[in-house]
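Please, does this match?
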Amino acid sequence: MNNLTKLLLASTITGMLFLGGCSNESEAPDTDSHLDHDNHEGHDHGDDGHEDHNHAEEEQDDHGSEYDLGSVTIAGTTLSVKMGEDIEPGAVMHLDIETTAGPEPVAIRVWIGDQAATGTLKSKAMWNSVDYHAEVEVPSELRPGLSLWIEIETADGERASGAIPING
């Protein structure tokens, strides 16, 4: 084997090793991750920084009172949506989104406004081992008929959206 062939072979193997670790997929809700941190065997959190509170008394999403916004069915998946506090112009709304029926989405994006997301930013909801959590910007002007839009990405890569009215 000549030197050029050896170099090409080594480069190919190295490239495959680096690219093998890359993934463009969202983390599936059923996969184990550090967010699902029930098992504390083999390591110790110690007492550093924990003197002033008790983790057993904490709640997972502590955004004050939760309000049920309702449910929406998108591409065969039914989602139940709760918001963490009152809607305030220009504030950030905290959302908890739970799949109650149908296939689990690969990704969920949310925004407040019209279906085309005109003048708004879409926020991606993150899986937190119980449900999806998202933070979405509330427009500075609360117009009548304002809706929370939810877009899901299905396992086959299709995207579909639906809305829940949030402002009469």
About this structure: The beta strands are 67-74, 77-83, 92-101, 107-113, 123-124, 126-127, 132-137, 146-153, 159-167. The radius of gyration is 22 Å.
